[in-house]
Design brief:
The chain is mostly helical and 299 residues long. It has 13 helices and two strands. α2 packs antiparallel against α4 and α5 runs antiparallel to α7.
Amino acid sequence: MAADLQKASIWKRISAYMFDVILTVCLALAVAIGVSFIFKYDAQFEKITNIQQRIEQEYDITFDITEKEYNALPEDKKAAYDAANQAFLKDPVMIESYRKILGMMIANVAISLLVADIVVYLVFPLIFKNGQTLGKKLFGLAVMRTNCVKITPPVLFVRSMIGLYIMETMVPLFIAAMMLLGFLGIVGTITLVLLLALEIGVMIATKTNSSIHDLLTDTVVVDFSSQQIFDSLEARTEYEKAEAARLAAEADRENEPIAIGAFAPRSATTSPANVLENESTMESPTDADSQTDKPEENV
């Protein structure tokens, strides 16, 4: 494994992101169904339906018509329809019920996405370690600090709840909801486009291709199989010292002088056999020398 930064492939990141988004939406829908029973939408809808039926009987019209059918009505029926519509929109009980339904819908979306985000982006990473969601686990990705140190639970909380949930999920959804209700119009559209451009621009401009929530927490998505992640900054310092010592030792061994005599090949004249032959020749006297050295015999 490498101690330096091993950036994750952009396609792996996109695949993991899409998997996590689909999982988040499925969980949010399941939670929303349960929350809807708690909020009792049906009671409020029933109030609005009763008011609508009462006004239809009172003005002798029906609200369930198309624009074409409305235009074909006689003038007196059109006047009655318009008066009934105004009476319905100004009914205090209907207004109160509509406000409750709208508030419950906003709360339902917020609660459902909060629970789903906690499960996908907080619980799973705490279980799998190294900031891995289920999508990142499947595609071999991890999250760490930019100094190659493990992400801690407090940092993970800020990254997932403040960065992902509030800044990158609820703020755009709130703007979209205001646009649907007719409060923002073109301003909302421009704001959403600018937010999207900011997210893409940050990913392109940063060397680590980080999102806004990564910049917020000084984290980065990396390739888990090749990235070395340290438990602490002290552990990384110790590793770097040990690695530097190992490299220095290897360099010393490579630069160590070689003893030439110890590895020089023997010549033919200095082979073991020749040495023994020479020694025996030097120690054994010649025949002439032996004759000379003998004492003279008496004649």
